[in-house]
Specification:
By secondary structure, the protein is mainly α. Helices cover 64% and strands 3% of the residues. Bound molecules: zinc ion.
């Protein structure tokens, strides 16, 4: 075929993928609406709408037409005529197509029904701390995933196929290495912190804080970060989240706790970090499958960078503490910025992942990683989970849950079949520390900028190095291009050691 027909074919393909993005955006908006206050009585019917639209989207991703597009644009003579970005669009569609095509539709349908039932079974089980009622669901979900792994195929460890869904290219081999190195340093650091006599006073964090004032301060910090309110909004939900519909519409939510000044604030900064990523994807990628974050791990690196490395830093509070005091008149009289900083960084082994501090958080993730890996190499059965979970908590954190609700049942992920997702959180911490080191060097000092409240150059740098690329670069390409080396856990270890040795006077 000549150039002209090639161009015409590409135009058709672009229209086709744009239509898929339209379905995706509609589904995303409906989800946002369902989670932020849609009337209860409409939820059942609305869920059916989501089901129908998702079904249509799935059909588009595996259609005969899609197969023809992929075949055509995968031919070497046609590849030659494509730009770098266009090749990546084809790759992304092919990845999705291959993965979806390998699962018989009726098996996939059964699985979707199973996970929907399992999520509601999990909610009850968690509430009652009753693992037995959830166990049969989880066993089936693991079996389905084992079946899917065989159909998808795998290289090396079976769990690699699941990891690859959330962090393209990530493997057990690599994770064993980086988590191993991290654990080796974090466990003794935690022991030293627990033995330290320097314990931050945290009492003043637990007062009653007016919700409107919490909201006002959260909005102020978002604006300081460079969150674009003309391309987003902040709402309230039980579980905070960020959703990028397109770069011009990236919404976030937070949760206000009356007796905790930090929960909503750091939740907002975290989701704000996710949002900055999505708001700053290049317009050139609009309407393509590349118009999103490149992976869960890189996404999480941005939320955690803003939340922990900026929001929980000393220079941040030296700059913004006076504003916090003024926002809550009288409530922080006699509390210094330094005391506030120390309290905000208290380290304490706890049972609940989402409430964990910056240091022990990584151990919660390693426990889940070890367990998932073992479930898929067959060395642990679902029936062993209670025992294994409690053993690992004792081993890694020195504590054991009193009931399963605060133990093995605490997270929603497994009920939805999201095995392979958890490592993203700890990867995010590692990526964040590595990226922060480069940023610090290239911008001539991260702390100095934060201490001045000059956050915009930081956002601009991240937008240029990471955000604008969307999914056109893989996570490993991004980390290599930005920092000049592969993922290296030493940066996180150094950051944690330096920060917490100072706080706990080690
Ligand atoms: Zn996050």
């Amino acid at each position: 075929m000549g150039t002209e027909s090639h161009a015409a074919k590409w135009e058709q393909f672009k229209q086709y993928v744009k239509k898929m993005k339209s379905y995706e955006e509609a589904i995303g908006l409906i989800y946002w609406d369902m989670r932020t206050g849609a009337p209860k009585k409409g939820i059942a019917a609305r869920s059916e709408v989501v089901g129908d639209l998702s079904g249509e989207l799935f059909k588009l991703s595996v259609s005969e037409e899609m197969r023809e597009f992929i075949d055509y644009f995968s031919k070497p003579e046609h590849q030659e005529q494509l730009s770098f970005i266009d090749k990546r669009i084809v790759n992304e569609c092919k990845r999705e197509y291959d993965r979806s095509k390998k699962i018989p539709p009726e098996r996939y349908q059964e699985y979707v029904v199973l996970t929907a039932q399992a999520e509601s079974a999990w909610e009850d089980a968690k509430e009652q701390s009753d693992f037995d009622s959830f166990q049969p669901y989880l066993e089936k979900i693991v079996e389905f995933n084992q079946e899917f792994i065989e159909l998808w195929g795998y290289e090396g460890h079976k769990y690699n196929t699941l990891l690859d869904m959330y962090e393209p290219g990530m493997t057990v081999e690599k994770l064993d290495q980086v988590f191993g190195a991290l654990r080796e340093q974090v466990v003794p650091l935690l022991a030293a912190i627990q033995a330290s006599g320097a314990k931050p006073d945290t009492g003043f964090l637990k007062q009653t804080f007016d919700q409107e004032k919490q909201k006002k301060f959260s909005l102020f910090i978002l604006e300081q970060m460079g969150y674009d309110f003309d391309a987003g909004r902040l709402d309230e939900t039980v579980h905070p989240f960020a959703t990028g519909l397109n770069p011009g519409d990236v919404r976030i939510t937070t949760r206000y706790l009356k007796d905790d000044v930090n929960s909503a604030l750091f939740g907002t900064i975290h989701e704000g970090g996710h949002a900055l990523y999505e708001q700053n994807i290049s317009p050139e990628l609009l309407g393509t499958p590349l118009c999103t974050g490149t992976s869960m791990g890189i996404h999480e690196s941005q939320s955690r960078f803003w939340e922990n490395m900026i929001g929980r830093s000393r220079p941040f509070w030296s700059r913004y503490y006076a504003e916090l005091q003024a926002n809550y008149p009288g409530q922080f009289d006699g509390v210094s910025a330094e005391s506030f900083y120390l309290a905000t960084n208290e380290v304490k082994p706890s049972l609940i992942r989402i409430e964990a501090d910056e240091l022990t958080y990584n151990l919660h993730i390693m426990i889940r990683y070890e367990i998932e890996k073992a479930l898929f190499d067959g060395s642990v059965k679902v029936a062993d989970l209670l025992r294994v979970w409690n053993e690992k908590y004792r081993e890694y954190l020195g504590i054991e849950p009193a009931n399963n609700g605060e133990g093995v049942l605490q997270d929603v992920h497994w009920s939805g079949g999201a095995f392979g997702y958890f490592p993203s959180y700890a990867l995010g911490n590692m990526y964040a520390a590595q990226i922060a080191r480069t940023l610090d060097r290239e911008l001539g000092g991260l702390d100095a900028l934060v201490a001045k409240g000059d956050l915009h150059p930081i956002k601009a740098w991240l937008a240029d190095k990471i955000y604008r690329h969307g999914k056109s670069l893989t996570p490993s390409e991004i980390i290599l291009e930005v920092t000049g080396e592969e993922l290296n856990p030493d940066y996180l270890v150094d950051y944690l050691r330096e920060k917490y040795s100072d706080i706990y006077k080690l």
